[in-house]
C-alpha cells in the first residue's frame, strides 16, 4: 500500500493585497462564493482595530487589544504583522495557516501590502501574490467617499497610504487593475485557477 501517494496535498496560498477601496474584498468574496471548486478558505487575520458594522470576532478578524497583539508579537506567533497606524495592528498567525493547509484548504490572505510581500517571501512558489489596484487615485477617492464608512480625514489618510502602497505593486506576481469589476473578477479567476492546477 503506497501511503505516500494517498497523502492529502497541502493547500496552496493566495495572497491578495490592495489599497483600501480597490475592490479587493469584493473580488475575493466573489471567488470564494461563486467558485467553491477552488477550495479557498480565508486566513483570518488578527487586528487591534474595533469591529466595523456586523463584523464578528473569529469570522472576519480576531479582534485583539494593542497589548494582546504585542504579547503575540513577543511570542513570535505571527507569520507577518504590521503596525499600519499607531496602535492599529494587523497580523497573520502561523499555526492557523498550517492547520488550514494540512486540511487541504487553499488559504487566502486578504492582507496589507507589506504583509503580502512578507508572506510571499516566506512561502515562495507555494504562494501566488496578486496586487489589485484602482485605475487612479481619483477613482479611489470617489469609491471611498461613496462607501461612507470613513470621515473625510480618514479618507485623506487612506488616499495618501494608497499612493504609497501602489509603489509596491511590482513586487507582486501579478497586478490586476480593477477598472471594470466583471473583467477584474474574470481575470482573477483565471489567475487563481491556473495557479492551483499547477503541479
Entry keywords:
199 residues, alpha/beta, 8 helices, globular
Mean pLDDT: 90
Number of helices: 8
- How big is the Rg? 17 Å
Helix content: 40-55%
Shape: globular
C-alpha end-to-end distance? 23 Å
Q: Tally of extended strands?
A: 9
Biggest sheet, strands in spatial order?
A: 2-7-1-8-9
What percent strand?
Answer: 15-25%
N-to-C SSE string, H for helix and E for strand: HEHEEEHEEHEHEHHEH
| Largest sheet features | 5 strands, parallel
Poorly predicted ranges = 1-6
SS-based class: alpha/beta
Write the layout of secondary structure elements.
Blueprint: H1 3-6, E1 13-17, H2 24-34, E2 40-42, E3 45-47, E4 61-63, H3 66-74, E5 78-85, E6 88-93, H4 94-102, E7 106-110, H5 113-123, E8 127-133, H6 137-147, H7 152-165, E9 174-177, H8 181-197
Helix pairs in contact: 6-7
What do these coordinates show?
Helices cover 43% and strands 22% of the residues. The chain is built from 8 helices and 9 strands. The strands form 2 sheets. Strands 2-7-1-8-9 form a 5-stranded parallel sheet, with helices on both faces. A 4-stranded mixed sheet has the order 4-3-6-5, sandwiched between helices. A hairpin with a 2-residue loop joins strand 5 and strand 6. The chain is globular, with a radius of gyration of 17 Å. Residues 1-6 have low confidence and may be disordered.
Amino acid at each position: 500500500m503506497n501511503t505516500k501517494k494517498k497523502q492529502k496535498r497541502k493547500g496552496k496560498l493566495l495572497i491578495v493585497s490592495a489599497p483600501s477601496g480597490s475592490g479587493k474584498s469584493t473580488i475575493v468574496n466573489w471567488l470564494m462564493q461563486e467558485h467553491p471548486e477552488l477550495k479557498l478558505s480565508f486566513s483570518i487575520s488578527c487586528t487591534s482595530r474595533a469591529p466595523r458594522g456586523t463584523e464578528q470576532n473569529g469570522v472576519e478578524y480576531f479582534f485583539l487589544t494593542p497589548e494582546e497583539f504585542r504579547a503575540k508579537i513577543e511570542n513570535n506567533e505571527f507569520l507577518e504583522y504590521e503596525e499600519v497606524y499607531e496602535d492599529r495592528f494587523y497580523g497573520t498567525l502561523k499555526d492557523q495557516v498550517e492547520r488550514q493547509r494540512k486540511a487541504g484548504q487553499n488559504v487566502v490572505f486578504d492582507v496589507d501590502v507589506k504583509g503580502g510581500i512578507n508572506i510571499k517571501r516566506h512561502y515562495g512558489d507555494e504562494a501566488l501574490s496578486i496586487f489589485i489596484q484602482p485605475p487612479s487615485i481619483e477613482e479611489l477617492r470617489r469609491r471611498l467617499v461613496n462607501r461612507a464608512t470613513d470621515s473625510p480625514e480618514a479618507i485623506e489618510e487612506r488616499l495618501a497610504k494608497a499612493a504609497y502602497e501602489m509603489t509596491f505593486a511590482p513586487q507582486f506576481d501579478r497586478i490586476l487593475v480593477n477598472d471594470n469589476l466583471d473583467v477584474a473578477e474574470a481575470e482573477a479567476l483565471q489567475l487563481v485557477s491556473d495557479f492551483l492546477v499547477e503541479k
